[in-house]
Design a protein that fits this description.
The chain has about 270 residues and is mainly beta. The chain folds into 2 domains: about 180 residues, Alpha-Beta Plaits, CATH 3.30.70.20; about 80 residues, Sandwich (Immunoglobulin-like). The chain is built from 6 helices and 17 strands. The strands form 6 sheets. Strands 10, 11, 14 and 17 form a 4-stranded mixed β-sheet that branches. The radius of gyration is 23 Å and the shape is elongated. The N and C termini lie far apart (about 65 Å).
Length: about 270
């Protein structure tokens, strides 16, 4: 069975995969798998961009987002006569049987199915099945400049899949696109001495997690601290530095990545 591996740490947001998909499918009919993709309005492979944090502590997350080629695809449940799953795991919307089947668009929890108004047909990523049939990889994978997007047999990626994550909707459906190094959220801030007007390097910062466990770090040589790859929930932060009174911020209701701003410490 085939899988996609997406390493977010290697994605630099070049949008090469998105352009590659357009290059392969706009103006080209790859029957029996797909009719031509429209020039605009559809991205069978798209790059989702999300900003995390607030100035000056900001990072950008790029997430390549194709059809997830689910083991239990909801689109197939919606139209079992028009959608099928190949033996290699690729999910195909039949371009003939999907004529007029607008319900397929709403059935996909990932927003990966589109409707071609001109051709009156539901369409999506095929995993470049026509290339896979020739022993090649999907065009988006072939043109990924950083190696952040890969494709192949599930057993060849077993070690990576074991530590990967998937985007799973409430209804399940078992996606076969696996993501490495998803950033999740972060909490950040900086610590300084207002009397000397200097940052404080090496201050101990403790983060209490929603489950009561703790993580620790120290401020860097800019006085900054980060706690990365955390999820939504209630947090608290405590800061301690030799010669200073401790500072604490409780009741942090984290929904998006958060820059807590500066913590001025008073002399002990």
């Amino acid at each position: 069975m085939k899988v996609f591996i997406v390493d977010i740490a290697k994605c630099n947001g070049c949008y090469g995969c998105q352009v590659a998909c357009k290059d392969e499918h706009v103006g080209n009919a790859w029957e029996p798998y797909a009719l031509p993709q429209p020039n605009t309005g559809q991205f069978w492979m798209r790059v989702k961009e999300k900003d995390h944090g607030q100035v000056p502590k900001v990072c950008v997350e790029y997430t390549p987002w194709p059809c997830m080629h689910c083991d239990d695809p909801l689109c197939k449940q919606a139209a079992p006569d028009a959608v099928y799953k190949r033996d290699d795991g690729l999910v195909i919307i039949d371009p003939v049987k999907a004529k007029g089947r607008r319900e397929l668009v709403e059935a996909c929890p990932y927003g990966a199915v589109f409707y071609n108004e001109e051709l009156d047909v539901a369409q999506k990523c095929t995993g470049c099945a026509h290339l896979v049939d020739e022993g090649k990889v999907p065009h988006c994978v072939d043109l990924c400049a950083t190696g952040g997007l890969r494709f192949g047999d599930e057993e060849d990626f077993a070690e990576e899949i074991a530590r990967a994550e998937t985007f799973v909707p409430q209804d399940g459906c078992k996606p076969r696109v696996y993501y490495l190094n998803l950033p999740h959220l972060f909490i950040a801030g900086d610590v300084w001495d207002p009397v000397e007007n200097e940052i404080i390097e090496g201050a101990r910062v403790t983060l209490t997690m929603p489950d009561g466990s703790v993580r620790e770090t120290e401020t860097d040589d800019f006085g900054d601290f980060y706690f990365r790859r955390i999820d939504e929930g209630a947090y608290s932060v405590r800061i301690e530095a030799e010669g200073f009174e401790p500072a604490e911020r409780c009741g942090i209701d984290l929904r998006e990545s958060l820059n807590l701003g500066d913590f001025p410490l008073a002399k002990a």
